Amino acid sequence: MKKILIFIFLFFNIAGFGQISRGANISYRYTGNASFPYNYTITITTYMKSTSVDNCELMVNFGDGDTAFAPRINGPMGVCAPFKDGVLISSCDGILRYSVYEISHNYAGPGNYNVSADILGRDLSICNMVVSGNESINLQTELIISTFLGPSNGPSYTAIPAICSNTGVIVYYNPEVIDVDGDSLHYELIPSMSNGTSVASWTNPQHSNSFTINDTGTVIWDKPTLFCEYVFDIKISEWRNISGTYYLVGKTMQEVWAEVSVLGGIKENNPSVSLTAFPNPSSGLINFKIESEDQNSEYELNISNSLGQTIQTIAIKNNLATLEESNLPAGMYFYTLSSKQAIVNKGKFVILEGNMK
Asked: In sequence order, what are the beta bridge partners of 313?
């Protein structure tokens, strides 16, 4: 039992005391007047899988050299006073803390401003990027202030950006935005971002046919092949029709979290069974160690590649296993731990260049 308690303690420390993201988005709206004609309000919305208070405020970079903390404005007053504590809502992944952060800023004049914010708390188990727990969630919006185009309001995102689905099933997702200006919207899929730039190791979520977005903003994921957790980002560009010519008036974005489970399988790891892969990343052997309350259970370890193809199955003896030397190329691999045909744990490991010989 002590081992399990230590594992839980370490997990919540690494993950930011329960701050595990289930999606986020950023937008803006015009709040100017005659005295402050270039005033805009930046809105950041986060969804955290947490039953504790997370960020009371978020740092925003306005793109003009100024920064400031945006307070959380929704929910009751409590731990975060004088700011709000957010609201607990239900989603496909359980109870989430829904938080809205807002701050207004006076710009000096017309121009293109890249507004951004970094959020900690990315899930440790994201499979379409390497070492996801080390990457922040970077949100960016391009605010274009133009006397010719007039004031602009970014779209409002209404969908909870969390998907729960199964392998072999086509997944559909739409951010369900509302644009009060009536501008034309263009949707595109972009790599997830961290610390102001695209995550170099990010790849499209695993699929058997395609992973696309259509003109209405609907993501079509045809079909997930590997059960795991994934993230992807949607960028929305706004175009305004002035006398038959379309002009870009701004861009916003949303990060979406998704979990794919095996059809008919279980959704979560068994909390009484922890599995550690080490060293990870590795340029040599990979060792696996099980810590379980039931010392008599028999386990089987399945290793698959990024295409979902099984490359090796290992029987666990004395709660230890080693992936034998082979010619595995560098890349990301996935493991599932099963007991009597029930999946009890899953994860990933990385083979570096200069790999097993």
From this structure: 302
